Amino acid sequence: MGVYRSFLFAPGNHPRKVEKVFDAGSDAVILDLEDAVANVEKVATRDVIVEALQRPRRNLGYVRVNSFETEFCFGDIDAIVGPGLDGIVLPMVENPAQLIAVDWMVANLERARGLEVGAIDIMPILETGKGIAALPDIAGCGSRVKRMAFGAGDYTYDMNMDWTLDEVNLDDARSRMVLASRAADLEPPVDTVWIHIKDLDGIRASSERAKQMGFQGKMCIYPPQVAIVNEVYSPTAAEIEHAEKVVAAFDEAEKAGSSSIQLDGYFIDYPIVYKAQRILDAARAIRAQEAG
């Protein structure tokens, strides 16, 4: 079981930020070739990113390439696929054909470069009206994708919406992301960034809202956001303690021939036990990752 609570962005053309980003505590780092890099610097930044991915690190290394419709996408993918790359973040995905084409490109580069075919993750960002409308087709297209991400910045611009601090107008898109992921047997999706970088209470509230809706993690753009996101998307000590009690009590009841019990005022049956087991699995995975 992987741990994907936090993805921290860093501009690929900013050597100091690239050097520091892997030490900020995120589960994964996204070195950016897209919005954070000016067009005139994109090509030169590819080599900088490839070199950075070769350094020792404890977290996963992803690269956000430029979108499929740009002149840079193919060159980005050709340059970065190789040892040290854990995943590609593909922005502005609007239809399954884009995803299948990128999957095909990556598979052929993996094969040509002696890598395991399918080992490099591809995480699409859905961030336009067309992308959200096509979610069922994108999620179910049969690509290597394990999880999708939501991008509210481009989405609210594309839809002529205000990106409000309470984010209630994102509920529909977020709900669609979770439902389409589940229907296609993908992992829960990863939530959008929080752009108010000094408002740490705000990112906590945003993270809690998305977690309650079914997301498994969040993208970050500011190192101090990482610890908050990791905390929100990790089981609390109280949740772990309760989950352990649920699993133990239900195991005893099952041995006695019962499949529903009461515990501390809660009705417990199989769905509740499965949720408790999920909490314990997540806690074990997080402990294992933090132990290195």
Explain what you see.
This protein is an alpha/beta fold and 292 residues long. The chain contains twelve helices and ten strands. The strands form two sheets. The protein has an eight-stranded parallel sheet with strand order 6-5-4-3-2-1-8-7. Helix 2 runs parallel beside helix 3 (73-80) and helix 9 runs parallel beside helix 10 (224-232). The chain is globular. 40% of the residues are buried.
N-to-C SSE string, H for helix and E for strand: EHEHEHEHEHHEHHEHEHHEEH
Task: Name the beta content range.
Answer: 5-15%
Helix content: 40-55%
* Low-confidence segments: none
What is the CA-atom radius of gyration, in angstroms?
Answer: 20 Å
Q: Mind summarizing the main beta sheet?
A: 8 strands, parallel
Secondary structure category: alpha/beta
Spatial strand arrangement across the major sheet: 6-5-4-3-2-1-8-7
Tell me the total number of β-strands: 10
User: Helix tally?
Assistant: 12
For the record, give the distance between the C-alpha atoms at the N and C termini, rounded to a whole number.
14 Å
Keywords:
single chain; 292 residues; alpha/beta; two-stranded antiparallel sheet
Give a brief description:
By secondary structure, the chain is of the alpha/beta class.
Itemize the secondary structure elements and their pairings:
Blueprint: E1 6-11, H1 15-21, E2 28-32, H2 42-52, E3 60-64, H3 73-80, E4 87-90, H4 96-112, E5 121-126, H5 129-133, H6 135-139, E6 149-150, H7 152-158, H8 171-183, E7 190-191, H9 200-213, E8 217-220, H10 224-232, H11 237-255, E9 261-263, E10 266-268, H12 270-290
Parallel strand pairs: 1-2, 1-8, 2-3, 3-4, 4-5, 5-6, 7-8
Antiparallel strand pairs: 9-10
Helix pairs in contact: 2-3, 9-10, 11-12
